[in-house]
Amino acid sequence: MKKPTNFKPDQEIVLESKTVKGNYLNTGTDHSVIFLEDNPGIGNLEIADVFNLGRSIRHHEVYKPIGTNVNFVSKTGTNDIQIRTYERGVEDETLACGTGSVASALLSSIKFQMKSPVKVKVLSGAILEISFEKNGDGSFSNIILKGPADNVFKGIINVSNSFNIAYE
């Protein structure tokens, strides 16, 4: 996986109904990681309003102009977390997000002193494993994401000879 960039810890995200504490990290795309332990008003992962809270945070002015994905994270063991993700572009909760799992695992290693590998349970029920090296300067390297991959679509596209596609 790509080396993470732009770590911004302890962001206060002021919403209409509440203030949420989050952490930002780009692991190939933008992620705001919301630890439920820091935000007791959200509740646990089963009852968290991922759609509405995620959408509000995704579009928040602190992440303008392009917005962010939003991961809601709960520690479930010494090196285990569970997440639910609101994804930018999909504009809804998704069953899993690889870069979000990586961001959540790396930030959990900082917050909870978790050691590599960190196991991440996603909404689909799959367990992803994130291994990494934590460097002396606090950066990360050799980040590897392991988990199941499922073929969800197969198709055939017929292009006639009269149809030309130009690439530049």
Kindly list the characteristics that best describe this protein.
14% helix; 168 residues; Diaminopimelate Epimerase, Chain A, domain 1; mainly beta; nine-stranded mixed sheet; 38% strand
Structure description:
The protein has 168 residues and is mostly beta strands. The protein has a single domain, classed as Diaminopimelate Epimerase, Chain A, domain 1. It is built from two helices and nine strands; from the N terminus they run E-E-E-H-E-E-E-H-E-E-E. Strands 1, 2, 3, 4, 5, 6, 7, 8 and 9 form a nine-stranded mixed β-sheet that branches. The longest helix has 14 residues, at 98-111. It is globular, with a radius of gyration of 18 Å. The model has no long low-confidence stretch (mean pLDDT 92).
As a percent range, the share of helical residues equals 10-25%
Highest-level CATH class:
Alpha Beta
> How big is the Rg?
18 Å
Largest sheet: 9 strands, mixed
What is the CATH topology? Diaminopimelate Epimerase, Chain A, domain 1
Beta strands, count: 9
Secondary-structure element order, N to C: EEEHEEEHEEE
Form type: globular
- How many alpha or pi helices? 2
Q: In CATH terms, what is the architecture?
A: Roll
**Quaternary class:** single chain
pLDDT below 50 for ≥5 consecutive residues: which ranges? Answer: none
Beta-strand percent range: 35-45%
Number of domains: 1
